[in-house]
Amino acid sequence: AAPCRFAHYFVLCGIDAESGLEPDELAGENFDQSPLRRTFKSKVLAHYPQNIEWNPFDQDAVNMLCMPKGLSFRTQADNRDPQLHSFIITREDGSRTYGFVLTFYEEVTSKQICTAMQTLYQMHNAEQYSSVCASSSCSMDSLASSIDEGDATSLAKLQRYNSYDISRDTLYVSKCICLITPLPFMQACKKFLIQLYKAVTSQQPPPLPLESYIHNILYEVPLPPPGRSLKFYGVYEPIICQRPGPNELPLSDYPLREVFELLGLENLVQVFTCVLLEMQILLYSQ
C-alpha cells in the first residue's frame, strides 16, 4: 500500500523552455540587479506518480518549496556546487510529509533562453550607461559623442560585473530533484539524491537505467517497521536507515553539528533555554 512506502513522490523542477524567462515577482524581483542576479519562475517539469488519492500532489506548493527563490542563473565563472535543503508540508489534519531537495546547475542548451539573457544584459547595460551619464550631467547630445575617462571606467566595471556574453560565456540554470516522504529520513534521501545526481553527470552510464532506481524507491522500498532498520540499493552504494521504536525518541535525522555551526554555542544554549521555558521562538534566515 502507498502509505507504507518509503517515498511518495519524485519531483523534478526547473526551467520551462517553452515559457522562457518569466520574472518571479513573489521572490522579490529587483530590476536594478543584473540579469544573472535576478530570479525567474520555475516550474514542476515532472513528478511521479501523477497523484496519490490520500496525499494529493500540490504542484504550486511543491514548486515553491523546492525552489523558494525561483530559478537562478550562473556562468562558468560562478560557483555551481550542488546544495541540499528540506521542507515540511503540514496538512489540515496535522499530518506531515517531508521534502528533500538537491539543487544543481546544468548548462542551458536552449538558444532562445541564451538569446533572451543576452537581450536582458543589453537593456541592463544601456540603463546603466544612461545612469552613469546622468550622474555626470551629460546631455542627450553628448551621449552620442564621448564621455569622460572616469565615466568610461565606471561603465566598464558595471559591464564586467556579473556580465554575460553569448559568444564567450556558458550559461547555467538551477534545477532540482526532490523526494517527498512520510518520515524525515534525511540522510537516506540525501545519499540517494546525491548518487542519482552523480549518475546524471558521470561520463560512464550507471549500472541500470535511471528510471529503475526511481521506480525502486517509489514502489518497491517499504517503510521500515518501528524499531527496525532498512537497507536498500542506491545507484552506486547501499543506503541504510533506521526507524525508532515506540518507546524511543522520535526520528531526528538532522546533523546536530550544523545547528552549532549556524547558531553558535551561546545562541543555541539560549534557544534551548527558551524551549524549556515554553517561549515562542522565531528563527529568521535568508
Automatic annotation (TrEMBL):
UniProt keyword list: Guanine-nucleotide releasing factor
Domain UDENN: 24-286
Origin: domain of life: Eukaryota
Leader sequence segment: none
InterPro entries, per the entry: cDENN_dom, DEN5A/B, DENN_C, Tripartite_DENN, uDENN_dom
UniProt GO molecular function: guanyl-nucleotide exchange factor activity; small GTPase binding
Record's keyword annotation contains Lyase: no
Protein name (database record): DEN5B protein
A Pfam family per the record: DENN
Species the sequence originates in: Probosciger aterrimus (Palm cockatoo)
